[in-house]
Amino acid sequence: MAQDLEVERLTKRYGAHVAVDELSFAVAHGSFFSILGPSGCGKTTLLRMIAGFLAPDSGEIRIGGASMRDVLPNRRPVNMVFQHLALFPMMSVGENVGYGLARRGVAAATIRDRVAAMLRRVGLPGAEGKRVDQLSGGQKQRVAIARSLVLEPTLLLLDEPLGALDLKLREHMKIELKQLQSQFGTTFVYITHDQSEALVMSDQVAVMNGGRFEQVGAPQELYYSPKTAFVAGFVGDSNRWRGRVTGADGSHRTVATESGLSVVAVAVDGSRPAEGALVELFVRPESIVIRRPGEATSAGPGPTNELQGVLESLLFNGANSRALVRTDKGESISVALPQTDEARALSEGAPLSIGFPAGQCLCFPLAAAATP
Fold this sequence. Notes:
Elements: E1 3-14, E2 17-28, E3 32-36, H1 43-51, E4 58-63, E5 66-67, E6 78-81, H2 93-103, H3 108-121, H4 137-149, E7 155-159, H5 167-184, E8 187-192, H6 195-201, E9 204-209, E10 212-217, H7 219-224, H8 229-234, E11 239-249, E12 252-257, E13 262-267, E14 278-283, E15 289-291, E16 304-317, E17 320-327, E18 332-338, H9 341-344, E19 351-357, E20 361-365
Parallel strand pairs: 3-8, 3-9, 6-7, 7-8, 13-20
Antiparallel strand pairs: 1-2, 1-4, 4-5, 9-10, 11-12, 11-14, 12-13, 14-20, 15-19, 16-17, 16-19, 17-18
Helix pairs in contact: 2-3, 2-4, 3-4, 4-5
């Protein structure tokens, strides 16, 4: 598959701080590629180097197969959408969308036709004469996208463009952005610290930490098969414990946690912590099942963990609830529950047990756990 973006051993330093550390990756033509990571991980620095606003200390950037070495930002086949959109308030919608075309010297009649066609494609037909301040937040987002795509860039770079929107509009725009990307077939490179944005919209996600990519993969792969403790802790919600390995059997590890729980977990591929090793465990709330006293344990492949405790609290969360269970060792464990009559009948302080398969509990060596 053709690669619209290729990055090889890209590095950027600020004094002793390495913002981007010999990073190499490629983005396939027509894909939605997200770079996900916490503040300060280097993702904005990386995007600015791709756009040409920053010069790398070393490494190579190729867009559409051509080297971008010494190519100025306005000469690169890219466009960029910023968090605060940078629309011109003194211009109409049509003037905003056609601004880049006018700067390129495109004939006025051609600009009118291309702007009208682009506004129809983003769901704003006939909006050319409107002022920017007459638009809703979502409409402004679509104008910013239209202004970028009308120039037909090889890459569209998006720097946390949904960060300034309220929650409900942000949820709507996640779906709309993915639909627009699929409709136009333009390659999107999107940076965000919001895992929900990355998981919902992306074909591929790179989880960034300390200037490097911890893991690159499809959203489902990152969620269900994290390769590092950082990814396991950053993508999705997890219960986390630290402890020491007390037994090993193939890929399974028995771990005594700091609070005194005994938990069987699966060591991730490539790591085989030996007895006595310090480790970190991750199990997702939806992998845990609540059982009342005397209720039978459902059979399943491999060992299953059974812990005793009481229901500490039950938190309503729309379509789901979140139960907090305090084990007899004092550990508080989060459990995701569907909204069923059985779940609603649970009462705080009631004794119960929780169970989860060892295969749903991931074990990482603590020495390698650069966790968020």
